[in-house]
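PROTEIN DATA CARD
Card holder: Nickel import ATP-binding protein NikO
Chain length: 241
Origin: Clostridium tepidiprofundi DSM 19306
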Amino acid sequence: MIDITNVEYSYNNNIALTNINLHIDKGESIALLGPNGSGKSTLLKLINGILFPNKGEYKFEGTNITKKQLSNIKFSKLFHKKIGFIFQNSETQLFCANVYDEIAFGPRQMGMNETQVEKRVNDCLDLLEINELKYRQPYNLSGGEKKKVAIACVLSLNPDVITLDEPMNSLDPKTKRFLKNLIIKLNESGKTIICSTHDFEYVDGIFKRAIVFSNEHTIVRDDVYKNVLNDDNFLYEHNIK
Ligand SMILES: Nc1ncnc2c1ncn2[C@@H]1O[C@H](COP(=O)(O)OP(=O)(O)OP(=O)(O)O)[C@@H](O)[C@H]1O
Ligand SMILES: [Mg+2]
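Structure generated from the sequence above:
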């Protein structure tokens, strides 16, 4: 489903990723681990077509994802319907006047009629248990409430791949447990999960595979999640624990 070959990415002269090779199959649940600045968020942005490799290639379901490819509106819509991104900072993804319109935005972009849109929005409000936020202004919500709305927005398009950048940040313990169970349910229903995290406690049971980045901005381990988590020497060496 996702094939990344010899990818490099730099922000001006700042190397963020180097020599990245990665294959991800449909239905996997993957944790991206590694110290601050090692390249996890950059990889998620590349996978979502927000950034493009300076070198190497990224293929999604066999199609090379490039700026040119995504300038094709029809392809871009299809791509963004298939893969959703929950940003670390929810503020950057909320811009509508109220929560209803925020969640409706994606489905409307995809050309659904208002009856279908309303059903999608209500389903997502129910799933995230945020019905009472329906007519609130996203801007004025708390950090955790914003996060839930951002997740609802992504789920409103029913994507095949759900990517999350440190989703547990700023959530209270109950909401973390709720989100953990939601991610597990989504994965069980066949969704591919790719998620960066520094949090081990609240993600227990989500992941089957771990991809570990080093300070050198490359992948130093790609292994069964449990094996990585049980390898204390490795985790300390790489500043993960
Ligand atoms: N917009 C930017 N401009 C310049 N450099 C950037 C930018 N964003 C990230 N970087 C640099 O790219 C490298 C990788 O950053 P990235 O955000 O991908 O790390 P990360 O693994 O997500 O870290 P964290 O755990 O702190 O979220 C870092 O050296 C960072 O300073
Ligand atoms: Mg990051």
